[in-house]
Every structure is written in C-alpha cells, then in structure tokens.
Amino acid sequence: MTEQEKETRDKFLTEAMGECWHEVEVRVGLKNKLMCYKCGEHYAVTKEAFGNPDFSTWTGFGKLWEWFHQQPKSFKYLFILTFDTDIGTSVGKIFLSGHYFQSDFINPDNFANALYQFLQQEEP
Ligand SMILES: [Zn+2]
Questions:
Q1: What would the pLDDT profile of 23-38 be if each residue is shown by its tens digit?
Q2: Contact, 49 vs 43, CB < 8 A?
Q3: The predicted structure's pLDDT at residue 123
Q4: Which of 56, 29, 57, 55 is closest to 44 using CA atoms?
Q5: Rounded distance, CA 63 to CA 98, Å?
Q6: What is the 21 CA–ligand 1 centroid distance (Å)?
Q7: Are 68 and 80 in contact (CB under 8 A)?
Q8: Counting CB atoms within 10 angstroms of each CB, which of 20, 34, 63, 120 has the fewest?
Q9: Distance from the alpha carbon of residue 19 to the mean position of ligand 1, in angstroms
Q10: By mean pLDDT, which of 28-32, 60-64, 103-107 is the weakest?
Q11: For residue 62, how far is its CA from the centre of ligand 1 (angstroms)?
C-alpha cells in the first residue's frame, strides 16, 4: 500500500467515523492561520497541525479501536464474521466484546485495512 493509498484509506475511515478530514486551502487572519475549508476549524502554522489521523500508527489504531467498540453489536458481529476464516475455534483469536476476534487485527495497518474493506462493502 502506497502512502497515497494509505491517505485515501485514512480519509475514508475518518469520514466513516463522522469526523472531518481537514483540508486546507484558505489562509485567514493576521497571523496567516490555516483554515479547513470544509469545517472551518483553523490552526496555526502547518498542514500537519491539522492532525488528520494516521491509522498506520498506534495512536491512530487506538482511535479506530475505540470507535469500533462504540458501534452496535450487529456491526461488530458482522465485521468479525466477515474476516473469521475459522469459525468456531479460538485459535489465533482473542476474546473481546463477547466474540472471538482475529488477533492479527491487533496491528494498526491490519485493523485499518480490514475496516476499510468492510465499510466499503457496506456502502450502497
Ligand atoms: Zn475540517
């Protein structure tokens, strides 16, 4: 996965979480702050200061993980079933939220890629 593909994934996931993927073009005010043209939030200095999530990092993983666990049971169950290659066993899995969950997903890119794939399937 290229950096560009990762950014496309991270933007998709951020928006699926109901948050703004900040994009800047406008400079406002005397201090030349950067403003996101979508939500109007503004920050000083650089584009990086916008802090769009990077789901390849453990910080990003934590954000995604918390969001995932706030989703309805049916969502989590369907997600787990989608990737469960060995239903009925606990091999290679950890027990979470009443389900056996692939332990491979305790990895930032693996979890983000799986959710990305899953949520794309969900789209109409
Ligand atoms: Zn924004």
A1: 876 666 656 778 888 8
A2: yes
A3: 66
A4: 29
A5: 21
A6: 6
A7: no
A8: 120
A9: 8
A10: 28-32
A11: 21
What confidence category does residue 116 fall into, taking pLDDT thresholds of 50, 70 and 90? very high
Give the pLDDT of residue 45.
66
**80, 69 in Cβ contact below 8 A?**
no
pTM: 0.84
Q: What is the pLDDT of residue 20?
A: 94
Report d(CA 33, CA 71) in Å as an integer: 35
Q: How far is the CA of 41 from the centre of ligand 1 (A)?
A: 6
Which single residue is written with the structure tokens 């990762």? 6
What count of other Cβ atoms lies within 10 Å of the Cβ of residue 12? 18
Q: Which residues surround ligand 1, an ion (CB under 5 A)?
A: 20, 22, 36, 38-39
Q: How far is the CA of 8 from the centre of ligand 1 (A)?
A: 16
Contact of 63 with 53, CB cutoff 8 Å: yes
Q: Separation of 16 CA from ligand 1 center, angstroms?
A: 14
Element (H, E) at 93: strand 93-96
